[in-house]
């Protein structure tokens, strides 16, 4: 048994097809006619762009719009002024196209790989993909295709690139194993979209496993079992059938309102990071967006997005949602979200430092640009504004005052917007939770961010294995913070949602129902599962469970009890 990262649920049983990396060797040499070499480079770029568009069309058919946009994102990399322009400068200096482009790509790969933010590190894989694609064209090397793989194939590769994924026939590939990639990598996103079980980050997978070797891929547990025994095959075949039965059961909840066992209605919305993610909200039957993480619009670029760029992004999401609610969180830079061009100083404790609303209120031009874009987009849908990391009433008041100033500007200019747009806050610190009674009088809504709330309340870094045992939303201290926040919101008559990972936790759902949570914001693929969980509980039954759970004094007691009743 080999352990990796669980990236796409399900069980795959089949034989390995090892995709070995093609050797792309070239001899660096000086070119006699740099202008002609630039033309050769541009021609190769055009060919790769055409191939990429074809791959995107193939992915659109097999996986969906969002996944096709990953491929189309490669085209923006191909046309990146810095990457393309500097390559041409190197060629005009006498380098061959292969050497020049490889050097520039390697520089970008190094920059992305060294970044702290995981999403930015994933961009290194995209650059490696386009680098390999262009070198193949320049060198005349044919790309390996998986479209001819037989049924029952488990794909094994160092890195699953979007260009390789485009050739996958969903019915033939039953599992994916890679040496690299995490849960948020494009490999994981594409595997989930294709509904193919996947285990990523398996150490030395291409060396340990062999072509045509029988294997079991448990994408839910992150386990790979090479050369399975008869008993293992029997057990995992049954496990696969159970998984498929449960999946079919969830489909019964598609198209239904989110209701408890007593008929009480709840909002079940989704967390997104890009406007294109709104498509997935609709595909997975979400009821809107409870959190649009706008910082991702600022990443993977060299400068702040303009007002027009931001407006287009927010408008696009609103139009896709067709009147469903869209809560846009203002820029949450800092902490683990590093944006190099903004020049944030290194801090000893960035999570406690100059970040989120604190940064925005000190960089008013940047904040004003974002707020103008959001307000303009509010004319096209049910958009709400949410401020992150509020810790005191002054921050909320200052943010709201800026919104009012911009409303006056837009009115004078005759630009349409929703004059009654709601402004709410993230409750993700102990300060905000303890001040919830005060903040509830000035915010239109609360959204509890349990990821940060848990970390701040328990004074622990979830990435630190030495204190990871403390990081749980079921800690009694965290539960009391959550209960207080919801109670204060309820008493003030404002809706309270939750957009952290805990909102999809089956153990926590009865407590949230008892406390009075009105909105659950989860990842799009979790919608049907959470809807099913909510349907099991009436308020009265949830109250009985909460009364007992809140009497326990340790996380272990709370967790064990809730596991016994769900």
Summarize the structure in words.
The protein has 566 residues and is of the alpha/beta class. It folds into three domains: 26-139, PtsI, HPr-binding domain (Enzyme I, Chain A, domain 2, Orthogonal Bundle), CATH 1.10.274; 153-250, Phosphohistidine domain (Glucose Oxidase, domain 1, 3-Layer(bba) Sandwich), CATH 3.50.30.10; 266-565, TIM Barrel. Helices cover 48% and strands 13% of the residues. It contains 23 helices and 16 strands. The chain has helices spanning 34-62, 65-78, 81-92, 97-113, 118-139, 162-165, 186-193, 205-208, 230-250, 278-283, 295-298, 307-321, 356-362, 364-377, 393-413, 430-434, 436-439, 450-458, 476-492, 509-515, 527-535, 539-549, 555-565; strands at residues 2-3, 5-8, 11-19, 153-157, 173-178, 198-200, 214-218, 223-226, 267-272, 289-293, 326-329, 383-387, 423-427, 446-448, 496-498, 519-522. The strands form two sheets. The protein has an eight-stranded mixed β-sheet with strand order 1-8-7-3-4-5-6-2. Helix 12 packs parallel to helix 14, helix 18 crosses helix 19 (476-492) and helix 20 packs across helix 22 (539-549). The longest helix has 29 residues, at 34-62. The model has no long low-confidence stretch (mean pLDDT 90).
């Amino acid at each position: 048994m080999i352990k990796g990262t669980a990236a796409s649920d399900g069980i795959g049983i089949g034989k390995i097809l090892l995709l070995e990396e093609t050797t792309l060797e070239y001899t660096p040499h000086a070119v006699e006619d740099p202008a002609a070499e630039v033309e050769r480079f541009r021609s190769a770029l055009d060919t790769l762009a055409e191939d990429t568009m074809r791959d995107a069309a193939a992915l659109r058919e097999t996986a969906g719009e969002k996944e096709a946009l990953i491929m189309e994102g490669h085209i923006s990399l191909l046309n990146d002024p810095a990457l393309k322009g500097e390559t041409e400068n190197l060629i005009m200096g006498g380098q061959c196209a292969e050497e020049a482009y490889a050097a520039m790509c390697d520089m970008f790969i190094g920059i992305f790989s060294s970044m702290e933010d995981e999403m930015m590190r994933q961009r290194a894989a995209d650059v490696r993909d386009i680098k390999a694609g262009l070198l193949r064209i320049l060198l005349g090397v044919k790309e390996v295709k998986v479209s001819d793989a037989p049924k029952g194939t488990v794909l094994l590769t160092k890195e699953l690139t979007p260009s390789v994924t485009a050739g996958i026939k969903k019915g033939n590939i039953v599992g994916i194993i890679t040496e690299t990639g995490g849960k948020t990598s494009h490999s994981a996103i594409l595997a989930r979209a294709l509904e193919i079980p996947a285990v990523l980050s398996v150490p030395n997978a291409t060396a340990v496993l062999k072509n045509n070797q029988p294997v079991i891929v448990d994408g839910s547990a992150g386990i790979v079992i090479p050369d399975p025994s008869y008993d293992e095959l029997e057990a995992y075949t049954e496990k696969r059938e159970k998984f498929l039965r449960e999946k079919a059961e969830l489909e019964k909840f598609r198209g239904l309102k989110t209701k408890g066992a007593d008929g009480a209605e709840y909002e079940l919305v989704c967390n997104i990071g890009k406007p294109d993610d709104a498509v997935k909200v609709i595909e997975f039957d979400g009821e809107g967006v409870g959190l649009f993480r706008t910082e991702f619009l600022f990443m993977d670029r060299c400068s702040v997005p303009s007002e027009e760029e931001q407006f287009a992004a927010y408008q696009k999401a609103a139009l896709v949602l067709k009147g469903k609610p869209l809560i846009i969180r203002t820029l949450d830079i800092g902490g683990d979200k590093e944006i190099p061009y903004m020049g944030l100083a290194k801090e000893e404790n960035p999570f406690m430092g100059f970040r989120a609303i604190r940064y925005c209120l000190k960089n008013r031009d940047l904040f004003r640009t974002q707020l103008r874009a959001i307000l303009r987009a509010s004319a096209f849908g049910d958009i709400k504004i949410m401020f992150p990391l509020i810790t005191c009433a002054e921050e909320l008041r200052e943010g709201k005052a800026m919104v009012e100033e911009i409303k006056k500007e837009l009115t004078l200019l005759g630009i349409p917007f929703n004059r009654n747009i709601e402004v709410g806050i993230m409750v993700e610190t102990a300060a905000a939770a303890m001040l919830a009674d005060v903040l509830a009088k000035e915010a239109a809504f609360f959204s509890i961010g349990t990821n940060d709330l848990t970390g701040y309340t328990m004074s622990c870094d979830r990435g630190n294995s030495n204190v990871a045992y403390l990081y749980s939303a079921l800690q009694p201290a965290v539960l009391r913070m959550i209960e207080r926040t919801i109670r204060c919101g309820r008493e003030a008559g404002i809706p309270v949602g939750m957009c952290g990972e805990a909102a999809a936790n089956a153990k926590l759902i009865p407590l949230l129902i008892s406390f009075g949570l009105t909105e659950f914001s989860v990842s799009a693929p979790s919608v049907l599962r959470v809807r099913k969980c909510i349907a099991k509980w009436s308020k009265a039954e949830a109250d009985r469970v909460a009364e007992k759970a809140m009497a326990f004094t340790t996380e272990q007691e709370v967790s064990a009890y809730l596991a016994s009743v769900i």
